């Protein structure tokens, strides 16, 4: 089983130099919804994960870690 690795996503965002508001706009979502994904209050939809990976120039796999 895999779970989202929010710390890794935050790290990738920081490395990209992109602002969260800009990312939310590019993902065609509100900053509130984007923050909810990062806080794990709501699941990150697969299509948005793919779009986010494209923006951050990484793979969707980079957002997840294997649960122990």
Please state the second-level CATH architecture: Orthogonal Bundle
The radius of gyration computed from the alpha-carbon positions, rounded to a whole number of angstroms, is 11 Å
What integer is the average pLDDT? 96
Low-pLDDT ranges: none
> Count the helices. How many?
4
Structural class: mainly alpha
The gross shape turns out to be: globular
- The top-level CATH class is Mainly Alpha
Largest sheet: 2 strands, antiparallel
CATH superfamily: lambda repressor-like DNA-binding domains
Q: What sequence of helices (H) and strands (E) makes up the elements? A: EHHHHE
Protein name: HTH cro/C1-type domain-containing protein
GO molecular function, one term: DNA binding
InterPro entries: Cro/C1-type_HTH, Lambda_DNA-bd_dom_sf
Domain HTH cro/C1-type: 9-63
Write the layout of secondary structure elements.
Layout lengths: L1 E3 L1 H11 L3 H7 L4 H8 L7 H11 L7 E3 L2
Antiparallel strand pairs: 1-2
Kindly describe this structure.
The chain is mainly α. Helix 2 crosses helix 3. It has one domain (2-59): Orthogonal Bundle (434 Repressor (Amino-terminal Domain)). Strands 1-2 form a two-stranded antiparallel ribbon. Helices cover 54% and strands 9% of the residues. The termini are close together. The chain has helices at 6-16, 20-26, 31-38, 46-56; strands spanning 2-4, 64-66. The chain has four helices and two strands; from the N terminus they run E-H-H-H-H-E. Residues 9-63 form the HTH cro/C1-type domain. This is HTH cro/C1-type domain-containing protein. GO terms for molecular function: DNA binding. InterPro entries: Cro/C1-type_HTH, Lambda_DNA-bd_dom_sf.
């Amino acid at each position: 089983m895999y779970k989202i690795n929010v710390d890794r996503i935050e790290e990738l965002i920081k490395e990209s130099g992109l602002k969260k508001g800009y990312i939310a706009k590019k993902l065609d979502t509100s900053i509130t919804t984007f923050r909810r994904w990062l806080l794990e209050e709501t699941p990150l939809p697969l299509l948005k994960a793919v779009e986010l990976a494209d923006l951050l120039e990484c793979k969707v796999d980079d957002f997840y870690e294997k649960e122990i």
